[in-house]
Amino acid sequence: MLSGRDSLALFNQRISDVRGEIDGIHHYLEKNSKRLAGFRQEKAAQYRELARVRLDDITAGKIIDGLNGTDRAVLRLLAQKAKAQKKLSGEIDASLNR
Questions:
Q1: Where are the extended beta strands (E) located within 1-98?
Q2: The whole model's pTM is what?
């Protein structure tokens, strides 16, 4: 059987061991919390990059649509010009033949 002093020393040793384990767990959690924060920051940066790429794609699509609309307008104007030139040429020919 253990004496009172031996029992107390054993309890103190066990308490010290548990405190050491708690400190180890605390350091482990702290280290992994920092890693997790880093991963979250990296994920946020990746989402920002994805949003930028998507916005670039959307903007490029709008620009292309705008260019396509401009192209169509230019083609309409060119067709109207050709029609007007043909009409004017016919009127000039008619006035010369009188």
A1: none
A2: 0.49
